[in-house]
Amino acid sequence: MNTMTLSPLFRRSIGFDRLNDLFEQAIHNDVPSYPPYNVEKHGDNDYRIAVATAGFAEEALDINVENRVLTITGGRGDNNSDEATVTYLHRGISRRAFRLSFRLDENIEVQGARLENGLLIVDLLRVVPEQQRARQIPIQSGQRALTDRPDQTSHAKTPEHATA
């Protein structure tokens, strides 16, 4: 099983695109994979997995997501009856069954899938929660920043501290 994780591995790194690093690791991994696939980044939040599925019918392919793992499987299809009557002079197109798995980050959602020119295209979208989005922090001057905070009250002015 080929597994590629899209979740952050290096929680202490700041300012690095960890998803991009993980894609690079998957691409340069020496483990052979069948069928060949690409993991592509289109913009800041759009990703795509393209799997070479030439010769596979749509009915022979299955895509599911369970526990943040995207699994793509392909079977041999219904053409096994032709195998007995065909003599191959050269057989270069492999149509063996396969299973590819990709571990998805908690912010990655599968948008859809389609067959296009012998490729199975799976579109992914990174949805950044509001609390993780970049925001502008206003800068206030010295003492004013401390006195403007509503949770900061002077304890010396309260009646119980005045009698003590």
UniProtKB/TrEMBL annotation:
It comes from the Bacteria. InterPro entries: A-crystallin/Hsp20_dom, ACD_IbpA/B, HSP20-like_chaperone. SUPFAM superfamilies: HSP20-like chaperones. Residues 136-164 are annotated as: Disordered. It holds the Pfam family HSP20. Signal peptide: none annotated. CDD domains: ACD_IbpA-B_like. Residues 146-164 have a biased composition (Basic and acidic residues). Belongs to the small heat shock protein (HSP20) family. This is Heat-shock protein.
